[in-house]
Amino acid sequence: MGRKTRSFVVIGLGAFGSVVALELARFGNHVLGIDKDARRVAALAEQLPSSVILDATDEGALREAGVDRYDVGLVSIGNDLESNVIATMNLRLVGVGTVWAKAESRTHHRILSKIGADRVIMPGLEMGRHAAQMLNNPAVQDYVALGNGYSVVNLMIPQRLAGRRLPELEAGPGIEILGVMRGTEYRRDPDMVLATNDRVLLLGKRVDLTRFGDRL
C-alpha cells in the first residue's frame, strides 16, 4: 500500500519556508504556498501545485483561499513577530488540523507554544545542535533529537572494532542498539559481525550517547 499524501499550506516563502514547501511538493504532497510578497510567490509559482498572494493575518482571506481544507500548516514568517503569531492563531481558527510555526527567539517560541502551535521549530538552534554533535565526535554521522532528552545517533564503527559481534559493543545502561546500517541496508541481527564503516543506530539520552561515542 502506498503512502497517503497529505496537504500542506506554507505561510511565508522566505529562505526557510520556500525550501520546506518545495521539498514537500517533491515528495508528492499537495502544497499551497502563501506570501504577501508577490515576488516570492511568483518565484515559486511554477514549482508549487498552488500559490497565492495574501496577508495571512487576514482570517477571512485565508478562508477564501480554502486554507481550512488543508491537513497541516507551517507558519514561516521570519521578519515580523506579530504577523507570525497572528498567522499561527488564524490557522487554528480556520480549522487546520496540525499547525507548525518557526520561531526566531526563545521568547517567540514560548508565545507560539502558548497560542496552540503543535510544534515550534528554531531552525538555527536545531541545526547548530546538530552540527555540534557531529563536530564534537567524528564517529557521529547523524543525530536526531527526539525530545524529553532522548536522541538517536548514527555512529561509524572504527576499524579496531571490525570483526566483533554487535553485543560486544557494550553500549551500557540507558542506551538501546536499534540496528546497523551497512551501506544502504538496515540490519537488526543481534549476532552480526561488524565491519569497518558499518554505522550503528543508538537510542538514549545525550549524556549517555556522548559517553559511548567518546569511548569509540
Instruction: Tell me the radius of gyration.
Output: 21 Å
Mean pLDDT reading: 85
In total, the number of strands is 11
Low-confidence stretches: none
* Tally of alpha and pi helices: 7
How much β-strand is present in the residues?
A: 25-35%
| Overall outline | elongated
Strand order of the largest sheet: 3-2-1-4-5-6
The structural class is: alpha/beta
The helix fraction, in percent, is: 25-40%
For the report, how would you describe the main beta sheet?
A: 6 strands, parallel
Order of SSEs: EHEHEHEHEHEHEEEEEH
Amino- and carboxy-terminal Cα gap: 40 Å
Q: How would you characterize this protein structure?
A:
- With 216 residues, the chain is of the alpha/beta class.
- It has helices at 15-26, 38-44, 59-64, 81-94, 106-114, 123-136, 206-215; strands at 7-11, 30-35, 50-53, 72-75, 98-102, 119-121, 140-147, 150-156, 175-182, 185-187, 199-205.
- Strand 5, helix 5 and strand 6 (119-121) form a beta-alpha-beta unit.
- The two termini are 40 Å apart.
